[in-house]
Amino acid sequence: MAQTPPATWQEHWFEHNQLLSRKFYDNDVAVYYDNAVSNSVTWPNTFLGDVWRYTKSVYGNFGNDPHLFAIFHTNKYSGGHPSTYFDASHDNRNVIDVGPGPWTSGTGGDLDITTHEVAHIVEGASKGIHGSPAFPIWGDSKWAEIFIYDVYLKLGKTGEATRWYNQMQNSTDNFPVAGTHWFRDWFYPIYNNYGGTQVLNRFFTYLAQYFPKSGNNYSRDMNWGEFIHFWSGAAGVSLKPLATAAFGWTSTFETQFNQARNDFPFTYGTGVVNVYKHCNYGGYVTALGVGNYTLGQLQNLGVLNDDISSVKVNSGYQIQLYWDDNFTGTTLTLTADNSCLVANGWNDKATSVRITTAGAAARAATIAETATDKQLLIYPNPVLEELRFNTTLPLSGATIRVLDVTGREVLQSRYTTNTINVSKLGAGVYTLMVINKDKSFIRRFVKQ
């Protein structure tokens, strides 16, 4: 059974010196007013109890006392502040302290400021660790903005959630650059695309698991690269492209991001192949699924050019490493783990990679293109809409087949003219087969 909160509480922090009276409590919330708050104000009893219960269900407990201590003032102490169970200044209680009121509406701004202060308790004391390493990055309100939206949505306050969403769409800040839309371009896309409530919680889970600590306190603040890296871990995907669109991408961000991936080598989500910066699976690690990865795509995932030194390959899959971009140049195929590519002469050489199932690789190997055969040329390559043939061979009526990287046929037609329309194919690398009686030609092309 939760300990009964005291009937009165003398403030003794900052400029606050009011004798507070307890107006309501249950097992989760204790509400206190100074003598100027109207006793007709009762909405905090239910609303803040619901907020705090929901908060604990998502982020875990905050110390041994289950209560949120909610303090209200009228006509004094403009704004609000939080405190946590780590802080002796507020008698080691989880506190929100707000003014100046009068708190009579129980809607809109009344809900916003109180939920905002709860957000600060979450960022400053979740997972049993004290401090907010991200505070210098997101400041006093950016994390709170997505927290408020999530709380309103999950408590069924759809009207308040819609109001808040619309308000945040037009909200801009001058950090890290003027005109930044934190909610619209950063937090809401992460929330909407990568797990909602759970992606918010995973950020603090990753912090508690990996970020430097001294005892039960975070030992330092984050830099921007670390901030983007940890949110990428929470989202399960590299958020470098999103960060670039939201904040811009400076050389400092790039350096910090790359260093963060080395200092905290967790993967973003899961894949069938992991690539590592260093031999013996050291340094940053990037999980890759089946697909084709140009240099630009690898860089968006945090993989630098000529930087892969070891790989882990799941059974039944393979990775093809290419020296050059767009799957060109010398290639190396691996179907099993390789702890150090130095022995293969491939350390820090890969610029683009292709990952397929081993069965697809075997099929592709049987139709490998012979670069010395010049009887059939194709252009342009890469191609956007129409692939053209240059040949003097009598190919009228020949079968044309196009295979994707898994060996699956995606297009078939007859050779009637010296062109074939590939505009409906998705971007990627394809194999063209032209089969005419006892002669066949194999060509690779890139669809843009």
UniProtKB/TrEMBL annotation:
Stored InterPro entries: Beta/gamma_crystallin, G_crystallin-like, Secre_tail
Residue ranges constituting the Beta/gamma crystallin 'Greek key' domain according to the UniProt record: 271-315
One Pfam assignment: Por_Secre_tail
The entry's keywords: Repeat
Family per similarity comment: Belongs to the beta/gamma-crystallin family.
NCBIfam families the UniProt entry points to: Por_Secre_tail
The protein's name: Beta/gamma crystallin 'Greek key' domain-containing protein
